[in-house]
């Protein structure tokens, strides 16, 4: 019992413990804020990638693509765990905006907008046709024309505001976009020897804002059939670049479903091995969305791991501060240790006093750090808005970074890990001086005071 | 009378730099139950060292210490803690009270040291009652909530005596209990010891003051690390 009483009294009567509490509180505050923001950014980034790709992707590594996809789509549609499938033809080319005499490199995504909206979040990325994605390629100003949807940052019209939002007209502006693509034959060579480039005019019909810089700044969506013609994927076998799949239970899909699709695909490849163009199956991979988008997500995950490592170092500093505080406390309390030993207090009680002292520091410090961190995060967007309004300063320049609000949702498990780590770090810091105190001979401790 | 503590040929030395200082050079001693023994000697004669060995705060280099029929040298740390908690009460020259605790809590400390927080809930009323009784006996009933630094030297020493008696130990060991007090207060403390001894409490007191030692029932003189009884 005496360890509880003394630990509590030492905690309250020794001003130095306030320093340790402040150190722990600052550590918890910083780690909570940074981890919440980093986790939020990563979670948001992953979600956007998931929204963009669907649950499972069957994709070719080659721009040539693969054929017989409609047969395989029929097989997939029969599976009870598959909700929808969307084919996509991809190619690279040039875009020319006639009105502004502006050109740029571009990635062509040929899709069926309705099907693609069933598999991915495509409909929600649109501005004008959000509710009617089936009409995404029908320009409102002239529905009979061939429309195209461009990534919101593809055409530099200066619509991106400094706060990260975009300005839109009531209706899409009439703009003619000439898209040129190098069509490839099934062997990967240029399809035509004389007329090297396929060119077609499209009319701007909508914007797609996925929140992914590499998509919004480089992709133009056009109808699947048009993309197949432009990219040379329409003959002699109709080909696509990828099939995007949505599983029935939405986001909570499992890897076993990906494995099932992979099994079906392998079977399909064997059954169609003798058909012309079957050699293109060799370049096809069946992947979960995480595997498919790994090259995009991995750098950000690495950045998060680096941040975690940096904060581990911060934890080491906390351990050291607690160690120093405990060491000083114990050297001041050497007499008390002797007194307790003369009363028969066991080693575990002596060690317990200092471990409890450290736990009190950790808990009170964590409480203060967590509450202040939570308040800061709760108000961080208001604070940033205020700073921007009054001083023109933003944490992330929204003209550069594709983020909206700063993520501020505190995850209970992250908070629990931080508080647990703080308690653990403080106990580690207390362990060595606590053990030293516990192992002291009673006579040694008592004589310190008498000298 | 029954022997409470028996010391046979104990030796103790300390290393002081490159030389070894022999403090106790073969002490033989027997203390009977209910005795009030004063250990007297010059400064550095080993009085306090002997007292620490008797109270299991220190171990001798050689020889043996028996409490009743129990060999203290054979006890492991856990048993020694139990021995110090239940069998011995210490009173020190510099009181050695815990500054963070009140007078009442200091008095209850030995009882608290041996129980868990859960066990304490059941034990607390009884311990509190005994602590009240002891502090009242030593004239401290109005000082229960005071901190040690708010008390005079005599009051602090009385709190220390109350604390030493908390667990009703058969053996009370006092190391220069009046050494830090004026003579009047010192005699007051001595009076308390005599009163306790009259009630059957065994007391071993270390002092360098022959007048104080004369108040005890038996005096043991320590000279050059050896006993000379008078």
Describe this structure in words.
The complex is a heterodimer of chains A (about 450) and B (about 230). With about 450 residues, chain A is α+β, with helices and mostly antiparallel strands. Chain A folds into 2 domains: about 1-45 and about 295-450, no CATH class; about 55-250, no CATH class. Chain A has 14 helices and 11 strands. Chain A has a 6-stranded mixed beta barrel with strand order 3-4-8-5-7-6. In chain A, strand 3 (about 80-95) and strand 4 (about 100-110) form a beta hairpin. In chain A, helix 2 packs antiparallel against helix 10 (about 295-330). By secondary structure, chain B is α/β, with parallel strands linked by helices. Chain B folds into 2 domains: about 1-85 and about 170-230, Rossmann fold; about 95-170, no CATH class. Helices cover about 35% and strands about 30% of the residues of chain B. Chain B is built from 7 helices and 10 strands. Chain B has helices at about 45-55, 75-85, 105-115, 115-135, 155-165, 185-200, 210-215; strands at about 5-15, 20-30, 35-40, 60-65, 70, 90, 170-175, 200-205, 220-225, 225-230. In chain B, the strands form 2 sheets. In chain B, strands 6-7-8-3-9-10 form a 6-stranded mixed sheet, with helices on both faces. Chain B has a 4-stranded antiparallel sheet with strand order 2-1-4-5, covered by helices on one side. In chain B, a hairpin with a 2-residue loop joins strand 4 and strand 5. In chain B, helix 3 runs parallel beside helix 5 (about 155-165). Chain B is globular, with a radius of gyration of 18 Å. The two termini of chain B are about 20 Å apart. In chain B, about 45% of the residues are buried. The interface of A and B includes residues 4, 347 and 450 of A.
């Amino acid at each position: 019992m005496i360890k509880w009483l003394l630990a509590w009294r030492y905690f309250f009567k020794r001003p130095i413990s306030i320093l340790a509490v402040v150190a722990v509180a600052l550590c918890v505050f910083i780690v909570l804020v940074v981890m919440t923001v980093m986790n939020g950014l990563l979670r948001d980034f992953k979600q956007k990638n998931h929204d963009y790709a669907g649950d499972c992707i069957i994709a070719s590594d080659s721009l040539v693509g693969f054929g017989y996809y409609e047969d395989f789509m029929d097989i997939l549609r029969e599976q009870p765990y598959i909700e929808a499938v969307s084919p996509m033809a991809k190619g690279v080319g040039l875009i020319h905006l006639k009105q502004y005499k502006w050109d740029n490199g571009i990635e062509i995504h040929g899709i069926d907008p309705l099907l693609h909206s069933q598999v991915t979040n495509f409909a929600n990325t649109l501005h004008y046709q959000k509710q009617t994605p089936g009409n995404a390629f029908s320009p409102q100003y002239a529905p009979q024309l061939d429309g195209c949807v461009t990534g919101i940052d593809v055409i530099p019209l200066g619509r991106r505001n400094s706060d990260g939002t975009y300005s839109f007209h009531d209706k899409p502006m009439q703009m003619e976009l000439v898209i040129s693509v190098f069509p490839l034959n099934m062997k990967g060579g240029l399809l035509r020897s004389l007329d090297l480039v396929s060119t077609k005019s499209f009319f701007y019909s909508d914007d797609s804002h996925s929140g992914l810089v590499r998509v919004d700044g480089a992709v133009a969506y056009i109808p699947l059939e048009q993309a197949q013609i432009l990219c040379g994927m329409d003959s002699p076998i109709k080909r696509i670049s990828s099939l995007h799949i949505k599983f029935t239970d939405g986001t909570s899909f499992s890897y076993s479903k990906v494995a099932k699709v992979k099994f079906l695909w392998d079977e399909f490849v064997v059954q169609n091995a003798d058909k012309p163009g079957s050699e293109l199956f060799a370049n096809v991979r069946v992947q979960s969305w995480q595997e498919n988008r790994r090259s995009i997500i991995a750098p950000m995950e690495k950045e998060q791991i680096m941040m975690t490592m940096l904060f581990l170092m911060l934890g080491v500093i906390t351990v050291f501060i607690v160690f120093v505080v405990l060491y000083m406390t114990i050297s001041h309390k050497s007499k008390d240790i002797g007194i307790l030993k003369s009363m028969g207090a066991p080693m575990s009680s002596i060690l317990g006093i200092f471990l409890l002292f450290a736990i009190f520091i950790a808990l009170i410090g964590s409480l203060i750090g967590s509450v202040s961190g939570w308040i800061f995060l709760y108000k961080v967007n208001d604070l940033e808005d205020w700073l921007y309004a009054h001083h023109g300063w933003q944490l992330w320049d929204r003209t550069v970074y594709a983020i909206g609000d700063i993520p501020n949702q505190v995850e209970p498990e992250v908070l629990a890990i931080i508080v647990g780590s703080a308690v653990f770090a403080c106990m580690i810091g207390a362990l060595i001086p606590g053990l030293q105190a516990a192992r002291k001979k009673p006579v040694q401790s008592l004589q310190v005071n008498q000298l | 009378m029954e022997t409470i503590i028996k010391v046979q040929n104990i030796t103790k030395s300390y290393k002081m730099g490159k030389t070894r200082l022999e403090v106790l050079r073969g002490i033989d001693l027997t203390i009977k139950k209910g005795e009030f023994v004063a250990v007297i000697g010059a400064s550095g004669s080993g009085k306090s060292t002997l007292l620490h060995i008797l109270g299991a705060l220190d171990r001798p280099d050689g020889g043996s210490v028996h409490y009743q029929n129990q060999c203290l040298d054979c006890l492991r740390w856990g048993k020694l803690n139990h021995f110090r908690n239940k069998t011995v009460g210490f009173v020190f020259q510099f009181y050695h009270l815990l500054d963070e605790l009140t007078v009442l809590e200091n008095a209850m400390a030995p009882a608290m040291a041996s129980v868990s927080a859960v066990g304490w809930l059941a034990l607390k009323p009884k311990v509190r009652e005994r602590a009240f009784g002891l502090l009242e006996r030593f004239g401290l009933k109005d000082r229960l909530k005071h901190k040690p630094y708010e008390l005079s030297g005599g009051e602090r020493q009385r709190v220390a005596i109350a604390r030493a008696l908390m667990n009703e130990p058969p053996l009370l060991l006092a190391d220069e209990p009046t050494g830090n007090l004026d003579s009047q207060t010192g005699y007051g403390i001595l009076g308390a010891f005599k009163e306790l001894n009259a009630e059957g409490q065994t007391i071993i007191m270390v002092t360098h003051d022959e007048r104080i030692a004369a108040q005890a029932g038996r005096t043991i003189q320590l000279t050059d690390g050896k006993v000379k009884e008078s």
